[in-house]
Amino acid sequence: MTHRIIPVDPFDLVIFGATGDLARRKLLPGMFHRDADGQLLEGTRIIGCARSQMDADGFRALARDAITDHVPADRLDTQVLERFLARLDYVTNNVSDADGWETLKDVLGASPQSSIRVFYLSVGPALFAPIVEGLAAHGLAENGRLVVEKPIGHDGASARALNDRIGAAFPEDRVYRIDHYLGKETVQNLIALRFANALFEPLWNARHVDHVQITVAESLGVEQRGPYYDRAGAMRDMVQNHLLQLLCLTAMEPPYHFEADAVRDEKLKVLRALRPLTGHDALAATVRGQYRGYAKEAENPDSHTESFVAIRAEIGSWRWAGTPFYLRTGKKLRSRLSEIVVRFRQTPHQIFSDLGAPLSANALIIRLQPDEGITLSITTKDPGPGGFRMRETPLDMSFAESAERGWRMPDAYERLVLDVVRGDQTLFMRRDEVEAAWGWVDPIIEAWETSGRKPEPYDSGSDGPYGAIDMLSREGQRWRELSP
Ligand code: NAP
């Protein structure tokens, strides 16, 4: 297998929040990897922006540390590192300070080579609109591309207000709302698996699929983000974006072409077809949990915020009518695991019924982490004489192993930033998708708030609250185990 690395045109990447956690852990190391693979051409520059006072050398020292901390030693070629650091520049810019904008304008104007300009907002959400407006006010928005991190709003109304402010400066075809789950190799492979193979699509419907489970489980708690997280909760932090995006890719109809708006049109249809959950229905179809000890970490003794949520969702469409999509996500769970499980129906008639225990139904498991890969679980005969016994056999496709030796799985951010440079919006959320997702989530949150009920407590390191297990067992199902 060969991996073609196609260089991208020279570009300027301006990272707002360049001294922050995301920049240090993901963006700078990610761009270093792309440089190491020869994908960045001469003339490409990365310009850090933040309040901290420092010069370009100070930022290079910060980037050197970040890369040394987050890039494996065998990738740390000194020559490549020096080449990469030479691309960096830094502008001190407290976004409310006019001087910083002028300096940024001068720095950007000094490079005639790169006609592609990317502004990456790696800052807290309160700064999204002020930065966008600062860029516009200083004539920097023209032809620039804008990358916006999550969260886009706190609810539908605030998302619309933010999107309006963004839209006043950047047309939608230059706005890239990032969801790093969509940059994962496996998620793109889900699209390939469904639409580049004849095998699965005929089975991909309510007639053959019993149910779908989408799990994003974290083993860590809220850590240092307690008070921030307490204003959001699992529904806003994870379901509104990541889980619903995964649901869309699993459930969408084939787009007419693999092209940004064609794919996003199909995802939007799924969001609009989600059966609304309001009032009593919302309470019946959801389970909220809070791990023991959360309230202390969140510094809010009376917190009603959920650190876990499970939802039974339904999609009102010909393809999916009657097939439940079970979503669950939570913190401080047994393990860190993200996966989509498509559980097929049992065979219509069991000819092996004399063998005792019923055979398990086939399942397709699309694993996003820890080890990205796809597994098809099928039933086969246990080899050897001595009767006819069955066993569940995984047909395993781990991408890291199936790739050639020496190949490393690129991080989602590496792909996504270069997609922005290429001008490819396929893996980014369009405004109407974000707002449709809020449109489904808002009434559920409202129902929780109106009920005044507290989330159900669960132990750290467990599978979450009992209510979530019960939700499935009432329907004769169970969650796939949370073991990596
Ligand atoms: P962070 O560590 O708090 O960094 C925030 C950055 O913003 C810092 O560089 C800070 O630098 C800068 N900043 C703060 N106030 C500023 C101002 N007035 N003017 C200019 N710059 C200012 O945050 P983060 O964890 O990197 O997250 C950044 C964004 O990415 C957030 O929207 C977050 O929700 C999203 N996100 C983060 C992660 C992650 O893994 N960290 C994952 C997904 C999404 P100075 O203090 O030097 O100004």
Which terms summarize this structure?
binds NADP nicotinamide-adenine-dinucleotide phosphate, Rossmann fold, nine-stranded mixed β-sheet, six-stranded parallel β-sheet, 484 residues, Dihydrodipicolinate Reductase, domain 2, 2 domains, alpha/beta, globular, 37% helix
Q: How would you characterize the overall build of this protein?
A:
The protein has 16 helices and 15 strands. With 484 residues, the protein is α/β, with parallel strands linked by helices. The protein folds into two domains: 11-149, Rossmann fold, CATH 3.40.50; 182-410 and 430-473, Dihydrodipicolinate Reductase, domain 2 (2-Layer Sandwich), CATH 3.30.360.10. The strands form two sheets. It has a nine-stranded mixed sheet, sandwiched between helices. It has a six-stranded parallel sheet with strand order 3-2-1-4-5-6. The radius of gyration is 24 Å and the shape is globular. The structure holds NADP nicotinamide-adenine-dinucleotide phosphate. Residues 17-23, 50-52, 93-95, 122-125, 127, 149-150 line the site of NADP nicotinamide-adenine-dinucleotide phosphate.
Question: What is the fold's blueprint, element by element?
Answer:
Layout: E1 11-16, H1 21-36, E2 45-50, H2 56-70, H3 78-86, E3 88-92, H4 98-109, E4 116-121, H5 128-137, E5 145-148, H6 156-169, E6 175-177, H7 185-195, E7 209-217, H8 226-230, H9 234-251, H10 260-273, H11 279-284, E8 286-291, H12 294-297, E9 308-314, E10 324-330, E11 337-344, E12 363-369, E13 373-381, E14 390-398, H13 399-402, H14 412-422, H15 431-451, E15 456-458, H16 466-473
Parallel strand pairs: 1-2, 1-4, 2-3, 4-5, 5-6, 7-10, 8-15
Antiparallel strand pairs: 7-11, 8-9, 9-10, 11-12, 12-13, 13-14
The chain binds NADP nicotinamide-adenine-dinucleotide phosphate.
